[in-house]
Amino acid sequence: MAQGKTEPPARIKTLAVDIGGSGIKALLLDESGNLLTTRSRVETPRPATPKAVLDVIAGLAKAQGLFERVSVGFPGVVRQGVTVTAPNLDASWQGYKLAASLKRMLGKPVRVANDADVQGFGAIAGRGVEVVMTLGTGVGSALFVDGRLVPNLELAHHLFRKGMTYEEQLGNAALKKAGKEKWNSRLGKAIQALDALFTYDVLYLGGGNTKHIAIPLPANVKIVPNVAGLLGGIFLWRE
Ligand code: BGC
Predict the structure, then answer these.
(1) Is this structure's pTM higher than 0.90?
(2) Whose CA, among 1, 59, 72, 213, lies 20 to 30 Å from 166?
(3) Which mutation among 53, 115, 143 tests ligand 1's pocket best, with the greatest number of atoms within 8 A of CB?
């Protein structure tokens, strides 16, 4: 090495994975959360068993190149790396040690969180009461107070209206069944219901079905780009 020169600091790359009900996505992030690669996406296998999903992640990881650690957004409740629920995947996810299995498979440290929580980390300002609702196969939700996550908020399976849950009214199956107009009108009601419940400073709407939003939104309701579900992965390593 030439005199007076020092090695540049080692750059830690994070493989960010978003496991969704219809697609599994991955890309690499630098330490500041900037994109290093373009996103790869593979259809979620059916049945979406842990083995089938891990096989997909192995392929995505290989395609993305070298990384030092892994962040995963999972479409269900996650407690300390173990998946507790997975309403839109296979039933065998209940009690599955996802972080430990991925660590074994990829040989790198792994952190796993609920997908809406990850999306929220990628979107929030970190001030006041911020709520996230994701509109995809399922309905994800997250609550942050001054940037701190209130864990395990699950609106999806909570009663919303007409004896139906948020997911039964606003999930992808509901959008297909009821059509865009009805779905939009329900979304307007959900925005009001969440305001009444949380008096949020900002409500972020994320997920693939935000592209079907056709109602005017209040000034404090913002649509988040879908990539936030991967970008937020970097925050699982802050602290
Ligand atoms: C699950 C949530 C998840 C959401 C979006 C719901 O069915 O209960 O945990 O965030 O789908 O994937």
Answers:
(1) yes
(2) 72
(3) 115
